[in-house]
Automatic annotation (TrEMBL):
This is aspartyl aminopeptidase. Keywords: Aminopeptidase, Hydrolase, Metal-binding, Metalloprotease, Protease, Zinc. InterPro entries: Peptidase_M18, Peptidase_M18_dom2. GO terms for molecular function: aminopeptidase activity; metallopeptidase activity; zinc ion binding. It comes from Plasmopara halstedii. Its EC number is 3.4.11.21. The keyword Metal-binding applies. It is an enzyme of class 3 (hydrolase).
Amino acid sequence: MYEKTSFPDLHLQTRTITLNSVMPKLTLSSRTSQTVDALLQYINRSPSPFHAVYETVQALSAAGFKQLREEDSWKEAVKPNGKYYVTRNQSAVVAFAVGGKYQHGNGFHVIGAHTDSPCLKVKPTSNIESQGYLQVGVETYGGGLFHTWFDRDLGLAGRVIVRESDSNFQSKLLFVNRPIMRIPTLAIHLDHKAAENFSFNKETHLRPVIASAARAELEVTTDCKGLPKSKHASVLLQLIANELNIKIDQICDFELCLFDTQGGNIGGALNEFIFSPRLDNLCCSWIATQALIESLDNLANDENIRVAALFDNEEVGSQSLMGAGSNFLQSVAERVAQGELCGAAARKSFLVSADMAHGVHPNYSDKHEQNHRPILDGGPVIKHNANARYATSGTSAFLMKELARRHDVEIQEFVVRQDAGCGSTIGPMLSTRTGIRTIDVGLAQLSMHSIREMCGTEDLVKTLDWFRAFYSEFSSLDSCLKTD
């Protein structure tokens, strides 16, 4: 329709277009919509690895999994048809379900992922005041695209050690889900080169503003005024205390990171995309856990143990107490198998290393090898590398492809260009440490390691179906192929 708009000495005709009249709207299937909503709820509630493990444990507990502690004896605790989980450092978790026909020496079917993502972490001494602003000193964690953190509304999350009394200390999760910090860019008028080549110094330019010094001085509470000069701004400590409903002098220490307060959501004109922070790798962490839970219907007939292992610190090399380079998975498996993992059990086992994959970028397609260009919603991706940067072998790839074929799950494959570097995953590390056959897989995504990333809605459902089938059916498939 046309409407006439009048201005003095000017007459224009404008056309009002209703989007629905020219663009069909895709309605996601009920299952896809519910699956995506569940993932986004998990991601939005998990601004730190501590929160991701907490949310994972909540889901496991609701499904009947019982907690085991590493410091306790498990000798009489683990039984066929039992469901259990173990946490380490509050940031890593191994969940497992024991088949009803399991016997010691049988195999483990494992899906491994990681709970951490590139972020900014608060330094041990973070108090900075500059030009009338209070700022928070932060340290980069992982190989993030940290230019994407400028001009974002940032919240604060992690864990805080709280003194309840002289003999009682508690670890409490902190989740300040509102924009309390921001890293402002420099106006182009003051740096004309920034529009063509934006660069920054991580130490001096990547400092978020949390408050104006003058306003903070006026608002400071009596609790702060009596304290000695702190390693952290009083306004930051007061904020933490208020969120946890404690006094400032109860704060003993903390591990905190910044996060984008804009949550994940469904996007695209046809609702085919997921736009969200931390898709790498909370997406695979959620799928692994959900697939394990959904596979429990036929657990009674399984001779093996089904495992979902979520590690911390993958983005910085995994060499930590709670990383894939630790003894966490091996320790759990050996205790369950009563020391037989290194023998028959390892050779009967299989591990899926699940981490997000590089989808081909429409503006930079030349960055991909011409015959290996995964697309979003084209199906899960199997990763290959001749130099063992990924753990995929010919046999491990065949088995998972055959499983996908049986469930009409289309598979894509990825090989990095030979003139480009290749990243790695927890796959080669776990395979080397445990002696378990391994494959590296993931969902295609764009903007990997940006503060906001992008993947496909249908890939989520396809991968969930594939992983659930792995837990439920891999035993019978594996018996059809013997190589040693």
